[in-house]
Write a structure and sequence with these properties.
This protein is an all-alpha fold. Helices cover 85% and strands 0% of the residues.
Length: 136
């Protein structure tokens, strides 16, 4: 990814600020998902064709993950090791989402759209974070 593109997306050319912004954006989006999955697991489960109990558990996990990524984004200099773990966790989440769609879930049409869409979003966060980390 080019430096110009990263700077344009993050509105800064300072690599640490770019990384922290991408981590913060990841935490915000993941936190919104966590809140929705916990607060509306039943209705969302019916809409997506996924068990509500599974969505609730995923929401709790995502809330904890959000806290970790958010605290990492708040650091003046996020640890390279921890950022690499976030990137790897995001890639794992994206891969497991696609695998679940293919192997375990029998989603509705909405679920068949939502699952790959959120997997692409999470993989996109991983790519942005990894690119920003490389620039530091």
């Amino acid at each position: 990814m080019s430096t110009t593109l990263l700077a344009g997306i993050s509105r800064t050319t300072e690599p640490l600020a770019t990384l922290r912004r991408f981590l913060a954006l990841d935490a915000c989006v993941t936190g919104a998902n966590a809140l929705a999955y916990v607060a509306a697991s039943g209705p969302l489960g019916r809409l997506l064709g996924i068990d509500g109990t599974f969505l609730f558990a995923a929401g709790v996990f995502l809330a904890l993950y959000t806290a970790g990524v958010g605290s990492l984004a708040a650091r003046r200099e996020p640890s390279r090791l921890l950022v690499n773990l976030v990137v790897e966790a995001n890639l794992l989440w994206a891969a497991l989402s696609v695998a679940a769609l293919a192997l375990w879930f029998a989603p509705t049409t909405a679920g068949s759209v939502w699952i790959p869409l959120q997997a692409l979003t999470v993989a996109g966060f991983a790519a942005l974070q990894w690119s920003a980390l490389r620039r530091i």
